[in-house]
Amino acid sequence: LTVLNAGRRYLKAEDLSGKVFVTSGLGGMSGAQAKAAVIAGCVGIIAEVDEAALLKRHKQGWLMEISSNLDHCIARLRDARKKKIALSLGYHGNVVDLWERLVYELDTTGELLVDLGSDQTSCHNPFNGGYYPVQLGFEEAKQLLSTNPGEFRTLVQESLKRQVAAINRLADKGMFFWDYGNAFLLEAQRAGADVEKRGANKTEFRYPSYVQHIMG
C-alpha cells in the first residue's frame, strides 16, 4: 500500500508497471519491500550489505534475483523497465553505491532511471550496526565497529551525507523520495546533510514522511 500510494500521490499513476523503486534494507520489517514492489507491479532494486538477509529473502521467494554487480543491476533495471516487467532485485552492496551509480547514469546518459525512492536501514540505531558506511565492506565495518566505534560513527555520518547528496540530485530531476519512519532524515540532518526544507524551520525536512503523506 505504501508503494502503491506513493505512485498515486507522487507519480499520479495507478499502474506502476515500468516504474522503478529504489530502497535499502532486507532485514526485519524492511524485508517486505521486495515483495511489495512485485505486488505493486514495479521494478524494485533493494540494496542490502548483509548477504545472509539477502539469501533469506530469496529463499522465501520474496526476492526474485540477487546480484553484487552494479553493471548487471543497471542492465536488469533498464530491461525490466522497458518491458514493464515486475521485478525485485536484491543488490548485495551498499545503497550509497547504488544511488551514486544512478547519478552517474543520469550524468552520462541523461536518463533518470528511478521514479520512487526510500530507505529502510535501521537509522534509529545508526552507530551500532543499523547503518553500514559505504567506505568499508560489511565484515571490515563490523570489525571497526567493535574496535573503534568513534571512527565508525564518523564514517556513518560521511556516508549519510553522500547518500543524501545523490538522492537530492535525482530528486531535483523528478524522482520522489520519502522517509519510511526509520529516522533516516533525522540522522542525515545530524550528520550535516542537506535535508532541511527550504524556507521552513529546522524541524521540517525536504522529503515527506510516509505516515503523513502516503498512509494518512
From TrEMBL:
GO MF annotation list: urocanate hydratase activity
Classification via InterPro entries: Urocanase-like, Urocanase_central_sf, Urocanase_Rossmann-like, Urocanase_sf
Residues covered by the Urocanase Rossmann-like domain: 2-214
Pfam families hit by this protein: Urocanase
SUPFAM superfamilies: Urocanase
Transmembrane segments: none
Entry's Gene Ontology BP terms: L-histidine catabolic process
PANTHER family: UROCANATE HYDRATASE
Official protein name in the record: HUTU hydratase
Species the sequence originates in: Brachypteracias leptosomus (short-legged ground-roller)
